[in-house]
Amino acid sequence: MRVEIMGALVTVIRNVLIGFTVAFAGIGAARAESITSDQPPVATLADGRTGTIAFEALTPKSARALVERTVAEKSIIAGLLKLPTGAHGAVPAMVIVHGSGGVTKGEWEWANRINELGIASFVIDNFTGRGIRETETDQFRLSPVADIAGALTALRLLTTHPGIDPKHIGIIGFSRGGIVALDTALEPFRRAVIDGDLRFAAHIPFYPSCDINFVSARLDGSPILMLLGGKDNYTPAVPRLCRRVA
Predict the structure, then answer these.
(1) Which residues in 88-126 are b (16+ Cβ under 10 Å) and which e?
(2) Are 162 and 48 in contact (CB under 8 A)?
(3) Which residues contact 37 (CB under 8 A, 6 or more apart)?
(4) Can you give the pTM of this predicted structure?
(5) Rounded to whole angstroms, how far apart are CA atoms 185 and 90?
(6) Are 228 and 242 in contact (CB under 8 A)?
(7) Interatomic CA distance for residues 212 and 221, integer angstroms
(8) I need a surface site. Which of 31, 143, 229, 245 has the fewest CB within 10 A?
């Protein structure tokens, strides 16, 4: 039943993709908009708060360190949580993950449209709290698995919110964030951050790199909708590598 419901949610989002593609043409050069908070980090959202939220996430330097749970370094990162207008009861939610340029206008546009669909949005900033402005010029400034840890921690945090349905939380990401949306489906990464059966209910990676670095014998079982650009010259849709994921 969970897969069927989230499959319907993915279909709804998919139906508006053409409009988004037109609206966001040329947005790659948009100015980064960091998310910061002067409030202490929280481990629960049981008080039902929304707005800017700081939380603590692991900052691994390698996939091995994350999977083996040997990461000592933690960082305080932040996200902006918004519930749809007039929400009643627990609603679905989407964690929104930025690309190599940090949070830009594109993420806010997506958050607004997702809210219009009756879904909560949680735009997270994986860079600023870790002292990073961008990774476009050097992807090794921050290990991609740190972004994965941030997204999975955001999932765990959202499940504590009384206005969000913990079984219907998906993830959508763009470019570097698209890799996060894809790789959070890998069971070794999920289990490295989350105890128990909690998992993202849907994964929507936009133009992730098809140069696949990680493989796993097991995925989390949730639906994956991967969207790639045939003429993308930054994260090209190399058919052979993308088919390995599909």
Answers:
(1) eeebbbbbbbbbbbbbbebbbebbebbbebbbbbbbbbb
(2) yes
(3) 52, 53, 54, 78
(4) 0.85
(5) 24
(6) yes
(7) 19
(8) 31
244: DSSP letter = H
Task: Give me 246's structure tokens.
Answer: 């599909």
Q: How far apart are CA 172 and CA 226, in angstroms?
A: 10
Give the pairing type, strands 164-174 and 91-97: parallel
Smallest Cα–Cα separation from 58: which of 42, 40, 41, 76?
Answer: 76
Using DSSP, state whether 51 is helix, strand or coil: strand
Q: Has domain 2-245 been given CATH number 3.40.50?
A: yes
Scan for tokens 């936009």, then name that residue.
206
Q: Which of 186, 228, 190, 188 is nearest to 209 (CA)?
A: 228
Q: Show the tokens assigned to 95.
A: 């964690």
Tell me the pairing of strands 120-125 and 74-82. Answer: antiparallel
Within 10 angstroms of residue 34's Cβ, the number of other Cβ atoms is 12
Residues 13-41: tens digit of each pLDDT: 555 444 444 333 333 444 568 999 999 99
Residue 209 has pLDDT above 80, yes or no: no
Beta bridge partners of 54: 78
Q: By three-state DSSP, how is residue 209 classified?
A: coil
Residues 129-141 have pLDDT tens digits of 999 999 999 988 9
Q: Would strands 74-82 and 51-58 be described as parallel, antiparallel, or unpaired?
A: antiparallel
Residues found in the chain: 246
Burial class (CB in 10 A: 0-12, 13-18, 19+), 29: exposed
